[in-house]
């Protein structure tokens, strides 16, 4: 089922006021776009990290590796979790399941300053930024997934299927911890991940923390459509209800509307966990981006955008389009205008939240 507007879905739907103020929305969006730019730079650039001069072929890596398709979603969730952690004083851990999502997590660690603390040679100046970009998926550098070298990593992102099991393992006998686990829809087709949805049945509200799984349903794995993205949405929601989760869905491609919608959804899920405990508040989120989010206009292969969207084929080509390698890199980066179909946002009534009926 294709959604034609940015919206949330679960049970009855109702409207509500803004979850983010104007300034908070601006800051979250600016952080997200900065993380997207740092992610693109890691995939493509050897030099000229701030694009102070026109982009030339010698600035671009000769072999382009890494997956950009999952990265804007990972960055979106990371930015909003930072907002929630600061607002609620949470003890939380972010586990990234999608394969080759390393650019996003490295970018966020760098933006926060953690990366430079752990690796002083990757400083926060232009020379450090050049090193950050150059080392990614490059001889003598770092892998393209969330590897052990990534600060804070407890999960190897290159081996798919174990993220949710690791999230549950992290919260067992750790009652104050919230594990936010992003599950890729390609990863979700693996046996270990498909079984891990049932791990909620083993959590104790007295001695264990909480797990908030977020399914990143962007429609494709490496080169093929995903099963969960092709079944009717109501069937998808009933599947997760059968697993014992209460699903909340965010879908859209307009940045401002998606930020607002995801902020409300995340607040609803966290209220559920906080008020009812792990056993009573098993909310899960599904982020369903519309096709083309952050995709360069010249890329018409839907599967290609999941990996390296544009490849340099001649000595004179500029491998990164200006729309993607700019500080405005984000949802539908080549088209900032919102159509009338992107204007409406409908909100859920989270059944286990005290905000139910108000939408937050």
Could you report the average pLDDT, rounded to the nearest whole number?
A: 78
Low-confidence stretches at least 5 residues in length (pLDDT < 50)? 1-17, 277-281, 291-303, 313-360
The number of domains: 1
What percent strand?
5-15%
Q: Helicity range of the residues?
A: 25-40%
Counting helices, strands and paired strands, the structural category is: alpha/beta
The H-level CATH homologous superfamily, spelled out, is: Thiamin diphosphate (ThDP)-binding fold, Pyr/PP domains
Shape label: globular
Can you tell me about this structure?
This protein has helices at 22-44, 71-88, 102-112, 114-118, 126-135, 163-171, 191-196, 227-230, 233-243, 255-280; strands at residues 7-9, 13-14, 91-96, 177-184, 210-216, 246-252, 283-289, 347-348. By secondary structure, the chain is α/β, with parallel strands linked by helices. The chain has one domain (18-333): Rossmann fold (3-Layer(aba) Sandwich), CATH 3.40.50. Helix 2 crosses helix 10 (255-280). The longest helix is centred in the last third of the chain and has 26 residues, at 255-280. Mean pLDDT is 78; it is low at 1-17, 277-281, 291-303 and 313-360.
């Amino acid at each position: 089922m294709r959604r034609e507007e940015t919206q949330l879905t679960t049970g009855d739907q109702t409207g509500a006021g803004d979850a983010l103020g104007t300034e908070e929305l601006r800051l979250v969006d600016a952080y997200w776009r900065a993380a997207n730019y740092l992610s693109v730079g890691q995939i493509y650039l050897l030099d000229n990290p701030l694009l102070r001069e026109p982009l030339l072929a010698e600035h671009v890596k000769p072999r382009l590796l890494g997956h950009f398709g999952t990265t804007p979603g990972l960055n979106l969730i990371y930015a909003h979790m930072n907002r929630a952690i600061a607002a609620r004083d949470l003890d939380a851990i972010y586990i990234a399941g999608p394969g080759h999502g390393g650019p996003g997590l490295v970018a966020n660690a760098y933006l926060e300053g953690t990366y430079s603390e752990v690796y002083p040679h990757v400083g926060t100046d232009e020379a450090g930024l050049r090193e950050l970009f150059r080392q990614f998926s490059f001889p003598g550098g770092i892998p393209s997934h969330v590897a052990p070298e990534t600060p804070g990593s407890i999960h190897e992102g290159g081996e798919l299927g174990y993220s949710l099991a690791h999230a549950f393992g992290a919260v067992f006998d750790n009652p104050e911890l919230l594990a936010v686990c992003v599950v890729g829809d390609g990863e979700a087709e693996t046996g270990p991940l498909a079984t891990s949805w049932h791990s909620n049945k083993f959590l104790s509200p007295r001695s264990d923390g909480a797990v908030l799984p977020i399914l990143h349903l962007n429609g494709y794995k490496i080169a093929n459509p995903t099963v969960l993205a092709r079944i009717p949405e109501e069937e998808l929601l009933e599947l997760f209800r059968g697993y014992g989760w209460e699903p909340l869905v965010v879908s859209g491609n307009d940045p401002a509307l998606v930020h607002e919608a995801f902020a409300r959804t995340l607040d609803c899920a966290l209220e559920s966990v906080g008020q009812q405990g792990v056993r009573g508040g098993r909310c899960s989120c599904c982020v369903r981006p519309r096709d083309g989010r952050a995709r360069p206009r010249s890329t018409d292969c839907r599967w290609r955008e999941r990996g390296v969207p544009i490849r340099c084929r001649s000595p004179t080509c500029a491998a990164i389009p200006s729309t993607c390698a700019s500080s405005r890199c984000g949802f539908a980066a080549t088209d900032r205008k919102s159509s009338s179909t992107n204007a409406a946002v409908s909100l859920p009534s989270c059944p286990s939240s005290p905000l139910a009926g108000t939408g937050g």
